[in-house]
Amino acid sequence: MTTEQEVREVAGRSRAAAAELAPLSRAEKDAALHEMADALVAASSDVLSANSLDLAAGRAAGLADGMLDRLALSPERIEGMAQGLRDVAGLPDPIGAVVRGYTLPNGLEVRQIRVPLGVVGIIYEARPNVTVDAAGLCLKSGNTALLRGSASAYHSNTALVGVLSEAAAKAGLPADAVQLVPGTDRESVTHLMRARGLVDVIIPRGGAGLIKNVVENSIVPVIETGVGNCHVYVDAAADLEMAAAIVMNSKVQRPSVCNSAETLLVHSAVAASFLPTVSSLLHEAGVTLHVDSFDLVPEGPLTVAAADVDWETEYNSLDLAVKVVDSVDEAVAHIRRWGSGHTEAIVSSDVRAIRRFSSRLDSAAVMVNASTRFTDGGEFGFGAEIGISTQKLHARGPMGLPEMTSTTYLVTGDGHVR
Amino acid sequence: MTTEQEVREVAGRSRAAAAELAPLSRAEKDAALHEMADALVAASSDVLSANSLDLAAGRAAGLADGMLDRLALSPERIEGMAQGLRDVAGLPDPIGAVVRGYTLPNGLEVRQIRVPLGVVGIIYEARPNVTVDAAGLCLKSGNTALLRGSASAYHSNTALVGVLSEAAAKAGLPADAVQLVPGTDRESVTHLMRARGLVDVIIPRGGAGLIKNVVENSIVPVIETGVGNCHVYVDAAADLEMAAAIVMNSKVQRPSVCNSAETLLVHSAVAASFLPTVSSLLHEAGVTLHVDSFDLVPEGPLTVAAADVDWETEYNSLDLAVKVVDSVDEAVAHIRRWGSGHTEAIVSSDVRAIRRFSSRLDSAAVMVNASTRFTDGGEFGFGAEIGISTQKLHARGPMGLPEMTSTTYLVTGDGHVR
């Protein structure tokens, strides 16, 4: 059983390393990222051996094929991770940016400057590529990464962190810039969540159960990510061809991710002309419709009755809840009641409907005449993304490098006193 | 005993009111603030009667004179609170500000826009003026205020919230824009801290015990405020007259507040010329010095030996810990080990020393040749302040109206799909 002392000892080393990382220049950090990328490729066979241990254990434990695929590394996937590190090196350094700056009437110069958060704890599930991805983003933003991957990827993660840590040291950075939390048991996570004062923030990445556990039990501040019960609302004034394209894209293009749509709301004024057509298209794509009324939807095995649970479910599959509403306000009320605050789209040509919809919701992103699938750090041009925040404090929506920073006020005077 | 159901019912009403406040214009909010100010003045005698009940109960319970003074209202103090509301009405509205905005290569227009947090819970101690102050700042930033003052101010707070809520309704806002959390027992606080999903953030304002309780037990996100163990470091290259003025101002001008200095660090190269003089000045002002060495400090009843506890204590009184260090790095290491991350000042003419000091600390504010007392929303020109955050997420340092907001992405396309 992992002890609190073991976790605090490692977290303390992350904290000491954070003090060394904070003042580094962009050039120093980028050189380390390239060193890490090269080291990963050079260590491919060692990493693959470690990964094969995890895969064998996973097969023995009866892991599903999908899980095994997410766990599996290959020379190509390792090259992909290395390229990810090089890409991060190419991004601007968020540290040192002046967020606000002005001179007060008394001559004091006030500068609000981006600084690292410090120690970033990340708790995540199977994919070992998150290990490299998170380490790179933390390093670039001047933070140390304290990683707690899943037990099923333990050998892979240990090998990866060993390579990254050694490469960091070779580039003149502290080896503790990237560390694994000791242990694979539940206590290991618990002690990390209690390490307030040593760890500055925890970002959970994974399923709803993982995130709920961290949010409810961590006394270290948490950034909640990833649950997405997204809606598309087709307004009375919608271009119905555009609406069909947006609904299809939002639901079908990649149903397993958080920015795919889970509920379609259709204004009653266009329901008769829109629902039969779009339902057929969705059925053709294999989507099961969970409907509040069978009136306008083709019958068949892919049409079922919706219950309340459908309005709140993030299917992450080829399922879509469908409801007819009588107004923008009813759509807003439905979304506020059942949504997760991730992304909602409106299809409409009516500026007043658009303004009402967008100003009355309480979500991280509102898409106007665009697919929900655009809520993404890559699509937003951030170059990298640590996750999509669905909470309101600190960062909301896709989180890039600036969202992995804090700020400090640097105030310069000439003997100023009050 | 206050039940969870009672607190959740009231929080639910705050949440419903938040949906109505969010889309309001600045004019509507400012009109309500003026209505509240006028109503407060008009209701002076009722508020003072309620306050006299709290004062009588406080005297009967043996409250110290200082506490009773903080609890006491007067026509002048009520007028002051009303003026505070009018001042907040005069500040710019943070809501709707475009934080970032750009057009992507595919033509999608991305706008990151300030929106309210939603329901702001504030847990605070004796002063009833916080009730009005917090309600005004919340309303201006489009948030509903859910207030949990101390039991000792219960009658005063009930009267104040009654007046504010009625005035809000008169101005056409929801009456639930300002509410008190039901109950004065411990359970009332506990249920508030568990109301995740209904309450968006809790800001504790008060002593270290209150803040620790909230930070460790709340599953609603918390913004930690107020603990300040601030340092002044007098460098080898300091102008010693300036240094003496800054030390005196940082310690003596208002020792009870969080941005006053608690520890003086002096470089050994100037200790012999600086310490005897500044010590005499501090002694004359009644400051007790807790010293790591008696060598350079005048003897007497105001000079005592420092122990480790002195390095970590926020005295909030005429006490100052004093230590001689041999380098900027030693000063930084001392502050990182013992400080609270609030404000640290350096007095130096050496740009390299200043750069090293400011880039290696981990505090909300660094003052260069200026008093620690300048870390303050009013001094920074914010016009109002809800507190000084000493945490790194969301807001750090003095928190004005923009720090009481979240953001949302409004993304506009023309049928864009991926």
From TrEMBL, chains A, B:
Source organism phylogeny: Bacteria, Bacillati, Actinomycetota, Actinomycetes, Cryptosporangiales
Organism of provenance: Cryptosporangium phraense
Entry similarity comment: Belongs to the gamma-glutamyl phosphate reductase family.
Taxonomy, superkingdom: Bacteria
Primary localization class, coarse: cytoplasm
Record's protein name: Gamma-glutamyl phosphate reductase
Recorded GO MF terms: glutamate-5-semialdehyde dehydrogenase activity; NADP binding
Record's keyword terms, sorted: Amino-acid biosynthesis, Cytoplasm, NADP, Oxidoreductase, Proline biosynthesis
Enzyme class: oxidoreductase
Function: Catalyzes the NADPH-dependent reduction of L-glutamate 5-phosphate into L-glutamate 5-semialdehyde and phosphate. The product spontaneously undergoes cyclization to form 1-pyrroline-5-carboxylate.
GO-annotated cellular components: cytoplasm
Gene: proA
EC number per UniProt: 1.2.1.41
